[in-house]
Each structure stands twice: as structure tokens, then as C-alpha cells.
Amino acid sequence: MRIVLKFSGNMYNLMRQAGYHPHETGEEKSGESSFARRLSIADYPRFHAYVELSGQELIINLHLDQKKPIYRGTSAHSGEYDGTLLEKEAERIKQIAGL
Q1: Sign of torsion, CA 56 38 43 87?
Q2: Residue ranges of the chain with pLDDT lower than 50?
Q3: Which of 25, 60, 65 lies closest to 47, judged by CA?
Q4: Domain spans of the chain?
Q5: 37 with 20: CB under 8 angstroms?
Q6: If you compute the radius of gyration of the chain from its CA atoms, what whole number of angstroms results?
Q7: Residue 45: other Cβ atoms inside 10 A
Q8: pTM for the whole structure
Q9: I want to staple 28 with a disulfide (CB 3.0 to 4.6 A). Which of 9, 32, 44, 94 is the partner?
Q10: Phi-psi region of 40 (alpha: psi -120 to 50; beta: other; left: phi over 0)
């Protein structure tokens, strides 16, 4: 799920306020940062966001990681990219951002 916000603040502060922590995967593109937020005490499931600040726009690509990748050296996982849970999380982030 892609979220685009008009934003002029600090993306790290926003993501921390939303309960996310930096999560480097090695798959980030240039100018992009990765953040994760667990849904429970366990590592999975968790929300995973790739975030990029482009001018006055904050672009958040959000998905839900259901479980850890199965094969060593791969990034494949059971991920969800749309649905009610992601829509609610997107709205929660927008509220925290003041939108």
C-alpha cells in the first residue's frame, strides 16, 4: 500500500511516533529508509515500511510481513500489500502526521 503525504517534518521522528523502528534490510533503494512495527511481542507479523522524502512529499510503501523468509539468502516472505489491516494502519499514520 502506497501512502503519499504532504510533509515537511522529520520522517524518523514521525515513524518513531507511530511506533516504528529503523529496520535495515539491505534492499533499500537510494534515498529510502526502512522501518518496522511489530503487532505483538513476537517478531512476526509486523508492518514494514519503505519511506522516502521527496521534496515536500513523504512516500511510504507499507506492507505486512506475515512470517520470516523461509530460505536463507532470499527476501521472499508471506507479505500482504492491501486489505483492511493495512488501510487502518495507513489512516493511523496519517493521523499521527496531522493529516
Answers
A1: negative
A2: none
A3: 65
A4: 2-69
A5: yes
A6: 13
A7: 17
A8: 0.85
A9: 32
A10: beta
